[in-house]
Amino acid sequence: MTDFADAYYSASRDFSGVAGAQESAEFVNDVQSAIDKAVEALKTEAERRANVDANYVKGHIAEVWHSETLKISATAKGHDDIWANVPGNNKTGQDIHYGDSETASYAELKYYKTAKDTARELGEPAYSGSQKIVPSDQLDGVIAESQKQAARNQAISPELADAYQNTADTARDRIEVDGISSKPQSENEAREMASDFKREGEIDPDAYGLNTESFIAWSDILRESGNAALNAAAFSAALTAAPHVYRLVVQYIQSGQWDARLIREGAGQVLSSSSGAGLRGGLAALITASCKTGLMGQSFKGISPTAVGMATAIALNSIENSWRYAQGQITGKELAFKSSRDAVALIMGSGGALLGQMIVPVPVLGALLGNLVGSTLGAVSVSYANSKILGICVESGWTFWGLVDQSYQVPEEVLREVGFDLFARQTFKTQRFAIARFHPQSYQHAHPGFSVLRRGVISFNNVGYR
Question: Where are the domains of the chain?
Fold first, then answer.
């Protein structure tokens, strides 16, 4: 395999670390963008009612809260078809409109000071066709009060009793679509948020849990990491298979038949590369998402996805090379060379990723192509530089600070040629007795000859006579 081919296949596997990290970072950024939109929507609603008391504004704030946090949760869970909005048309039972691509529903929301007041307001028969949303700290009280009023009005006002019973049966502290729900909010939280907006003109999102760590769970990170691993493996398989497919097609055109050996070789290369790429992509995605969501601490939220991808690839390559060294498959000098080559390749790959994203402004694709080109050029450059250094070492005897071995042992073939008797283990061989006969020999004059010994690379980073 040529240096370029080896570098290309390594790059098609190692790029997955950067790719997985970037894909994971995009997911966290999407959730953060949804949070930013929610904060802006809450601020806009508060500004619309700047001259109204906080006890009145809190209900409107709660409507926007449930609408926006449902959309944030949907983004965090990977559902892009869930929607919600606050119509603002003041129609009965239509405070919040929400649903997905197949369903649509309305919710009526009441946030009064006490559970008793909230239950009585929701007891209107006109609200029976809507989902009823109440403060999280009043949910049990609203249900209990509604059941009490349903029993009390059963005889005197059956219609009102049915409305109260409907509240007891359907009241929730969140809206929900296909297992995705808004974030519950208490009456006190809604009132304090309204007060903060009236006093400061804005709120501290972290104080109300409007941050990535409140919406992204470990299960979401594992899901996205799995997706990143699959995407990295698929992309790596495609890149690895491309040269093999080309060789197969060319060979078929020339000979008229498929080469089973090339097919087996290509399949093995694709399987090896894609599995390694999936591991690197998934692990880098897991580390990036857990850091950028804040689950590993606030200090890691600003971590660079590219740096994580590079570090992951370097670490896994080092583990792989160290294992091969421990098994005696490579020497210590080969371990040092491979580690330095991987580091240079990944550094150039990260630079190529930034440049590729600017040249090809397609999310992820431009970075992946740039990373592939940069990594391949980096690995080839290291191999080329190493060959030039070995050439200098051959001519000068330089050891390059101990990284190149200089062997001055003369090969056995040369020693035998000049007449040296070399020590070798003797084996006993039986001989048959035979009568010795005289055989005359003619005299031949021996002419002296000369052979010039040349030095060159006889093994990895090892210079000697050949």
Answer: 217-384
